[in-house]
Design a protein that fits this description.
Blueprint: E1 5-10, H1 16-30, E2 33-38, H2 43-47, H3 54-82, E3 86-89, H4 95-103, E4 108-112, H5 127-135, E5 139-142, E6 154-158, H6 163-171, H7 173-176, E7 181-188, H8 199-207, E8 213-218, H9 225-235, E9 240-244, H10 250-256, H11 259-266, E10 271-274
Parallel strand pairs: 1-2, 1-4, 2-3, 4-5, 6-7, 6-9, 7-8, 9-10
Antiparallel strand pairs: 5-10
Helix pairs in contact: 1-3, 4-5, 9-11
Domain UspA: 3-143
Organism: Caballeronia calidae
Pfam families: Usp (PF00582)
């Protein structure tokens, strides 16, 4: 099974072009259809102006229509140059409802990492994680900075035997089967385990035609596991990171931190997240 429908989120942010090219590169690899889903923050439309400020509201809405038209023209031009079959969608209503609904009819959803330095990148609070949790589809998160020169050549899997990690590995199989190098990384929970986490998933991948190496490191009290995994992935020059999202309570991770929270906020390479 390959990814045949790629949904990419479009807006007016600085990284929209990078995100579009990223999705088109995936589509060319899998001969896939691309859906460009244009969604921008809508809260300001309803709360920025008083009812009497009609002229200001109309000017603001006209600017938003201009931004939409420019985004559509850029997307359609990029897809034509890439020779990829694609379509544009700009639904109204709740941005989260639209993203999750349209995302459920795709094989993978391409989203951008939050960027506090770009106001145009803000869609809604917890937008990415809510799409991960609600869509039932894997999300490929594009980092907020840096060039993406390759994808899926050198892949790292964060493995902890959880349901979410198993789902992520299965969702990523189209990429894993084409990868040159695959590394399964674990952080040991208990030193007295009979078999380290990761041995069985290595065998599973082998039967799927994916040869993966395996490495494990002991958990160090006080260390951020997500940062540890990301640092090791970067040291291996990985170009993709695969992880289950929110194997622990999402509310707890928001308060205390966790691997998912770390990846969402700090990853410098594309991350595939599944829940």
């Amino acid at each position: 099974m390959n990814w045949k429908t790629i949904l990419v989120h479009l807006d007016s942010s600085r990284r929209c072009e990078t995100r579009t090219q990223f999705a088109l590169d995936i589509a060319r690899r899998f001969d896939a259809h691309v859906i460009g889903l244009y969604l921008v923050c809508q809260d300001l439309v309803h709360h920025m102006f008083e009812p009497a400020e009609t002229l200001q509201r109309k000017a603001y809405e006209a600017q938003r229509r201009t931004s939409l038209d420019e985004a559509r023209a850029a997307f359609e031009h990029a897809t034509q140059l890439a020779g990829v079959n694609a379509e544009w969608r700009a639904p109204t209503g709740s941005v989260l409802d639209a993203a999750t609904l349209h995302g459920r009819h795709a094989d993978v959803i391409v989203l951008g990492q939050d960027d506090p330095d770009d106001p145009e990148a803000f869609i809604a609070r917890h937008f990415v994680e809510d799409v991960v949790m609600g869509s039932g589809r894997p999300v490929l998160l594009v980092p907020r900075a840096g060039d993406i020169k390759s994808l899926g050549e050198n892949v790292v899997i964060a493995w902890d035997d959880s349901r979410e990690a198993a789902r992520a590995v299965a969702d990523a199989l189209p990429v894993l089967r084409r990868a040159r190098f695959v590394e399964i990384m674990t952080v040991e929970r208990h030193r007295d385990e009979e078999a380290p986490a990761g041995i069985e998933i290595s065998a599973y991948l082998e039967r799927q035609g994916v040869r993966a190496s395996f490495s494990s490191t002991p958990r160090v009290r006080g260390e951020n596991t997500g940062l540890t995994l990301m640092e090791r992935a970067n040291s291996m020059h990985a170009d993709m990171f695969i992880a289950g999202a929110y194997a622990h309570s999402r509310g707890l991770e928001r308060v205390l931190g966790g691997v998912t929270r770390t990846l969402l906020e700090t990853s410098t390479l594309p991350v595939l997240l599944s829940h």
